Amino acid sequence: MSVNRCMYLFSRLQRHIRTRTTSTTAGTCHASSGSGFLHKQRQAGSVVCSIHVSSNSSSQKPPDTSLFVPISLKTDCSGDGSVGLELTQPLHKSELLKVLNRFYKKKEMQKMASDHGLDARLFHQAFISFRKFVLEVTSLPADLHIILSDICSGAGHVDDIYPYFMRHAKIIFPMLDCMDDLRKISDLRVPANWYPEARAIQRKVIFHAGPTNSGKTYHAIQRYLAAKSGVYCGPLKLLAHEIFEKSNNAGVPCDLVTGEERTFMDSDGRASGHVACTIEMCSVNTPYEVAVIDEIQMIRDPSRGWAWTRALLGLCAEEIHVCGEPAAIDFIRELMYTTGEEMEVNTYQRLTPFKILDQAVESLDNLRPGDCIVCFSKNDIYSISRQIEARGLECAVIYGSLPPGTKLSQAKKFNDPDDPCKILVATDAIGMGLNLSIKRIIFNSLIKPNVNEKGEKQMETISTSQALQISGRAGRSFTEGEGTTMHRDDLPVLKEILSHSVDPIETAGLHPTAEQIEMFAYHLPDATLSNLVDIFVSLSQVDGMFFVCNIDDFKFLADMIQHIPLNLRSRYVFCTAPINKKQPFVCTSFLKFARQFSRDEPLTFDWVGRHVSWPLSAPKNIKDLVHLEAVHDVLDLYLWLSYRFMDMFPDTALVRETQQELDDIIQQGVRNITRLIRATDPLQTQGSRGGQAGGNNASASSNHLTNSRGQRAQRGSGEMDSSLASRLVRDGLLTPDLLQQLQKEWSKDQNHQRCITKEKCHSFP
């Protein structure tokens, strides 16, 4: 090789090393080409490599490194060409493998890597990637090639690999170099400081505390109506609609803002002084004289609690009126201490008395006008409503997935004194948002499926707060409200639940914002949105007053559309859409919406109509009704997205008209629900998990309702106790199929036992 060529190669190598040295952040180590450099420095007691660690790192929780996904590097190119090869000699893979394995097995290397943020898991993953890179890359970087060549020839020490290993680790795990920045972004310890506009004014906070039907919200709304400007924040669209209508009927112009709807009273679209909204939609930048935050106890909700925290800390209003359970008083007062704001408390007593009866209903034959049977599953509603109408009675039906218009229609039917419908069968959806003329609440079950803070579904006995919220609906239009259970054994349990005081609220929910996730993405550009959120929650710091809300639904949607090319902000917005992930048709529609959006093709009414097969006919069975409810949810999703991406979802008015037509079709189906149930064979034979009269348990439950639970009718061999069986199925501890299998096994065991007894009898003279 010529002298000029050598000089050229050396000059390139020097420029390369200078560039690497200046471009690498503090804490990345570079070894000289001299052999045993790191080894000698360690012997001298000096530390070559160091990563800046913040002074408070000892108090920080370690990150969940299982969330760190390594970036894949290309092995078919190199910026240095063959400089290293030309300066030294070819490297043999067998020798390289031995050298690398020696490096991996050295405890000192693992200890140093741990000090620089690589725990055992990350060290192993980084080594696997480093080894793959060294053995498979077309041409190694010149400096690394020279070091490895020296080690293979005995002129270097295996420890000299460490700086290059760490350089590689920080490339595939970019979060190692910006951990302090990520921790600062995810620091959620002082959420009050997120709202400087609210902190700039001295707000007056008034807490209206009382049970259901105590007039607490009424008093707050009266102040809201008297103000020059105001905002009402409620948990449900129905409640926002109610305040919207009440305000306008009182001569106070009021707009309506929900996730799926915007209604402005001004013909030119100018905002009114008052607005009624769902709590997620409230503006924390608009100044108001009065703000009303309803159902403040939901600040501890595992999924939605963040919205109440945001409203309470962020609303720019001179007066903040919060309404809710007395159990929230102490916590809200403590939360207001963090903002330096005092709180006034007004307490209210229930307007009409309420009592728990000493007798369970025990039979649907004992129902009377004004009764509401509360179930915790739609299957129970289907089964019980059919049995009620089989007795010649009419009943109204209300459950969560029904459209708001259908719920209001069924409520109106039940409330109408001239309508023959005097019985209501409902889920706990009646706990908020509907004014109902209920005389007696009947709990069909006290077991309800719940989702805990980890996102896990579990069957639990209802809490005192839930029992009070539901039973409190009784007596609004009567001189007294009553509560009881369908089954005798449940009555003492209900009395015990209601005898306890409501657990005091101790924490409030928080949720990462789009801006915080965008800052995370700046540091981790190759991470998926789901992974970004996971890392955010893992690194987040909250004080004892707060918790990070469950993000499983967000991650579910993020994973669903990860393969679709969207910018981060659009992807984030799509993933905050409130959809029911249990509905396959809704999830499929969400995916198609995102795909069409990514193509920059507007989602027109014709396109949506083809997707949902509009027009749709009246349901012939329960399956059809469930599908219509899913289509209604899809149209809701369109409307929700249309207010965030107006250009891409242009036909809002047409979709809303279609949704209203669909609501009428669903109302027609619900009015004929017993006919739909009869037309649905599977539901006639399927046991309901939470009800006393579901499916194949109907006869057993009927016998059970007409007889005391303590009595056992004489049964033929192999027949299980219907009381125990129905309760196990109702409480979700047994499925109907498993029950049938147990009955067969029990029958076999009894027959076998009978044969043994006969043999013993014959063996005696």
UniProtKB/TrEMBL annotation:
UniProt keywords, alphabetically: ATP-binding, Helicase, Hydrolase, Mitochondrion, Mitochondrion nucleoid, Nucleotide-binding, Transit peptide
Catalyzed reactions: ATP + H2O = ADP + phosphate + H(+)
A single MF term (Gene Ontology): RNA helicase activity
Protein name, entry field: ATP-dependent RNA helicase SUPV3L1, mitochondrial
Residue ranges of the region described as Disordered: 681-722
Cofactors demanded by this protein: Mg(2+); Mn(2+)
InterPro entries: DEXQc_SUV3 (IPR055206), Helicase_C-like (IPR001650), P-loop_NTPase (IPR027417), RNA-DNA_Helicase (IPR050699), SUV3_C (IPR022192), Suv3_C_1 (IPR041082), Suv3_DEXQc (IPR044774), Suv3_N (IPR041453)
Similarity annotation: Belongs to the helicase family.
A single Gene Ontology CC term: mitochondrial degradosome
Intracellular or extracellular location(s): Mitochondrion matrix, Mitochondrion nucleoid
Chief subcellular location: mitochondrion
BP-aspect Gene Ontology terms: mitochondrial RNA 3'-end processing
Pfam families, alphabetized: DEXQc_Suv3 (PF22527), Helicase_C (PF00271), SUV3_C (PF12513), Suv3_C_1 (PF18147), Suv3_N (PF18114)
Domain (Helicase C-terminal) ranges: 356-521
Record-listed E.C. numbers: 3.6.4.13
Keyword RNA-binding included in the entry's annotation: no
Protein source organism: Cyclopterus lumpus (Lumpsucker)
